[in-house]
Amino acid sequence: MRTGMAWEVLYPSGSVPRLERLQAAFNAVGDDESRMPALSCQRLVNPASGYPTIECMVGGLGFDIAAIGVWNREEHAAIEHCFDVEPDTIFNRAGLTIVPGPDIANMAHAMPVVRAGAMLVRRIVDFKSPLAIVWRPIGSAMEPGYFRRVVDAWLAGGPFPALGMVGLRSAPDGGLHSHGLALFTGQELRLDPAIAEAGSEGWALAARLIDRLVESDAVQSPLELSGEGGRTIRLAPSANGRFVVVEWSE
Fold it and tell me: Which pLDDT score, from 0 to 100, does residue 74 have?
């Protein structure tokens, strides 16, 4: 299947929901205005992937769902970030992969498509509780309860699931780099070591900045923002424009 802005929903071996049952359940459910519109699913007889697949329409946007297991392990994303889940618990993985359909593949990075995909995955999690949910572009694995909390908050108008759909990595200089923000903005965050040394405060600041930047244009000139506790932070594009450098303002 296509990778792009895709998800994996992982289950214990032998517990993966059958596609025909998922299809029947989704077609039987009416509108749920508190979370998402009604789903309309059909079986794809000859999908491009070669695997049995169903297509689900979410608000007019089509997504393909197929099973993944030992026969097509190349479909699995390498796990690089974990949120409330241990990688050992999902070592032998099987499950479902969810990707934007061919009609919207060229706009898979658009936020309405990403949001609709998250809505669909959230409904799959309701159908049968999995071991973990993986955001494939960065190999981010989320425990189901964690996924429900951050995605439900986002779908209700709250912050973007910054720590989940974007990850943070330690930089050689002791700072922090985001991983995955560039999928949406073309730039990653680079947090100064002084911010990284603040521990959870630094991570919380990174999450707030990701939420602010994820639907914004690229940062092309320096700007200052008010942080927690009255401190001011300075954001500036790196020399090559690929990063947004974040530091405390003097």
Answer: 65
Domain that holds residue 216: 166-248
Q: Same domain for 87 and 181?
A: no
Going by C-beta distance under 8 Å and a sequence separation of 6 or more, which residues neighbour residue 56?
A: 26, 39, 40, 41, 62, 63, 65, 120
Q: Return the axis-axis angle of helices 144-155 and 111-127, rounded to nearest 10°.
A: 130
Radius of gyration, alpha carbons of the chain: 19
Model pTM?
A: 0.89
Query: What pLDDT was estimated at residue 33?
Result: 46
Q: Is 179 left (phi over 0), alpha (psi -120 to 50) or beta?
A: beta
Q: Do residues 75 and 177 share a domain?
A: no
Average pLDDT across the chain, whole number: 87
Banded model confidence at residue 114, pLDDT cuts 50, 70, 90:
very high
Residue 213 domain flag: yes
148/179 same-domain check? no
Distances (CA, A) of 21 to 24, 31, 123, 159: 5, 19, 13, 33
Domain identity same for 44 and 130: yes
Nearest-angstrom CA–CA distance, 66 and 56: 11
Same domain, 93 and 114: yes
Residue 32 belongs to what H/E stretch? none
